[in-house]
Amino acid sequence: MDKAFTFIELIIVITVTTLLSGIALVNYQRIGGQEKLQKDAKQFERILFLAKEKASAAETLQCDSTDPGIGELIGFKVDLTSNDYYLIEVCQNQEFIISAQHFSPSISAINNTSVTFRKSDMGITSNVIVSFGIRSILINNNNCRSYDVSPSGAIDELSPYTC
Q1: Class of domain 8-162
Q2: Mean pLDDT per segment of 10 residues, for the chain of length 163 residues?
Q3: Where are the membrane-spanning stretches (predicted)?
């Protein structure tokens, strides 16, 4: 009696192993994508709150009311592009990038949007709610995070959803 495996048995074992590895890899990527999305969304949220805080305190870094080329502080803006977001000090005649952040490679913005928080708790420069959306672009992981900024300057994180 032979105690060796037949060719068919080997093919079946290799096929099952390959299928299980593929399923594990997809789930690993999905979980990794969710973690990256959560991390990047929290960092973006911190930038939104930092802009609001700096504007509320009328904290000026570059603005100078005595310099007509720059002018006095208007507020702080958060600018969201497809792969980046910026914290910008907005002066009367000029803008200064304070911080530039990049999303993880698998994370991108749903829409290019910006919001300016006016100094001294004056709200934002828009009369409507400004929405920001961030998504994971990994295969089988269409998760999104959204933030709304009301005209009064209130920042709300909406529930995560499938986009």
Answers
A1: alpha beta
A2: 77 90 75 81 92 90 86 92 94 94 90 90 80 79 83 85 71
A3: 6-28
